[in-house]
Amino acid sequence: MLQRILPAGKDFIKEIVSAEDILVDATCGNGHDTAFLSRLAPDGHIYSFDVQAEAIDSAREKYQADNISFVHDGHENISKYISTPVKAGIFNLGYLPGGDKSITTVYDTTITAVDALFNLLTPGGRIIIVIYHGHDSGKIERDALLENLSAWPQDKAQVLKYQYINQKNSAPFLLVIEKLK
Ligand code: SAH
Predict the structure, then answer these.
(1) pLDDT interval class at 98 (50, 70, 90)
(2) Which superkingdom, per the lineage (predicted)?
(3) How far is the CA of 32 from the centre of ligand 1 (A)?
(4) How far is CA 153 from CA 1, 29, 148, 150, in A?
(5) Closest Cα partner for 70 from 54, 99, 89, 50?
(6) Nearest CA to 92 among 36, 15, 152?
(7) What is the pTM of this model?
(8) Does residue 70 register a pLDDT over 90?
(9) Ligand 1: which atom is nearest the Cα of residue 55?
(10) Domain extents for the chain?
(11) What is the Cα gyration radius of the chain?
(12) Using CA positions, which residue lies closest to atom 3 of ligand 1?
């Protein structure tokens, strides 16, 4: 059966990751994706970012592991924390389910972060972005990301949009960026 959006995105990551890779969760939130990455690269390292101390603290409590660094800072500052090549990263955008809906990712810092992470990516590396556009700032973020990524040269990256076209208009969809060289 065809996968739902986030599981499909995780498969795009799983396909290319080896045990010793460096990975990034750009939106830690409840920490589920961080835990997934931590299991994929037991001999590597995961950097997990969130601006909310509460999110970081509860994820750290639930999923403490030697190969995870939780970073209480915005993903737009990624290059302050990482200088080694990164194999893959996840952006699960929007706001934390059950949390403060006013703390949501916003297009300008998201685009800065995607650029910064892409610069750290090894050739063949991938970034997945799950876009939630049911809320107003999500729509702005969706449009800005699509406009920005559509303009990336084909010899730099492949950018895939993975979306069910017979679901609700506001259903989340996935972007996959693969670095070519
Ligand atoms: N919408 C997803 C979950 C998204 S969680 C779902 O439904 O499953 C998004 C997380 O991104 C939140 O925990 C929020 O605090 C965090 N966030 C917002 N802005 C950020 C930024 N600039 N850098 C890092 N994390 C950020």
Answers:
(1) confident
(2) Bacteria
(3) 12
(4) 33, 32, 11, 8
(5) 50
(6) 36
(7) 0.97
(8) yes
(9) 13
(10) 5-179
(11) 15
(12) 96
